[in-house]
TrEMBL record:
It comes from the Bacteria. GO terms for molecular function: ATP binding; ATP hydrolysis activity. Keywords: ATP-binding, Nucleotide-binding, Transport. Residues 4-235 form the ABC transporter domain. Pfam families: ABC_tran (PF00005). InterPro entries: AAA+_ATPase, ABC_transporter-like_ATP-bd, ABC_transporter-like_CS, P-loop_NTPase. PROSITE patterns: ABC_TRANSPORTER_1 (PS00211), ABC_TRANSPORTER_2 (PS50893). This is Phospholipid/cholesterol/gamma-HCH transport system ATP-binding protein. It comes from Roseimicrobium gellanilyticum.
Amino acid sequence: GPLLVVKDLVKAYPNGTRVLNGVSFEVHAGDVFTILGGSGCGKSTLLNILIGVDAPSEGSVHVLGENIHQLPRPKRATLMRDVGVLFQSGALLQSLTIAENVALPFQQHHPEIASDRELLEDTVMMKLRAVGLSRHADKYPRELSGGMKKRAALARALALDPKLLISDEPTSGLDPVSTKEIDDLTITLSRKSGATVIVVTHDLLSFQRIATRGIMLGAERDGAVRGTVLLSGTK
Ligand code: ADP
Ligand code: ADP
């Protein structure tokens, strides 16, 4: 079945703001699914609902067959280990090297790997090689360019070989060349790792480059409501 099923989602904030006016879509294995929309249309709200940190007002989200908003917290935490998330900001800890940042998920979830120093080092280097950062393993985030930081965050999000990768604005703040590099890397990684990918972006060019399918979130502008549209990608 689909890895993610979103049905009739609505979010009404207590102050009366209403976004996601009945959003429905499915993400299938092998998809690079792009969530598009201008600022303020509800991309962050949707993302927070997809990863279970925020609850919908109406509708449901099934991740790997489970309704995540009805799962008891410990079960949800276990399920969400199969979902890698690349957060838009604060993805890397500034006091740790790139290698140490990528080692974190193993320390949290795989003590048998983390306690074997050589195995941990090899595993981390393999992850860094996949994003072209093996020569920068011992640098700190502040020593890297914007594009390299995004690649390091990508390596960390993919550390535990998630079935589903959710990437929040992975190219925000990057120049066009670095943006293309990240887009190319997203395609390569999804093909190599077999992870299904959801990318949140406001960049139509990225959508054209990477998406198998996607959604354009509707928004209310000047009193007129545009509906949400399902898109076919070109990949
Ligand atoms: P995007 O990520 O697409 O820019 P957001 O999901 O951040 O959009 O916000 C969508 C709308 O919901 C905006 O109008 C925003 O002001 C509003 N919003 C977001 N979070 C809250 C909140 N906690 N309380 C009230 N309104 C909110
Ligand atoms: P971008 O245009 O992608 O932001 P930069 O001009 O920041 O690229 O960096 C170009 C190259 O210089 C990067 O690939 C990186 O290897 C190196 N670099 C950038 N900043 C630093 C730094 N503070 N310390 C070491 N190397 C750096």
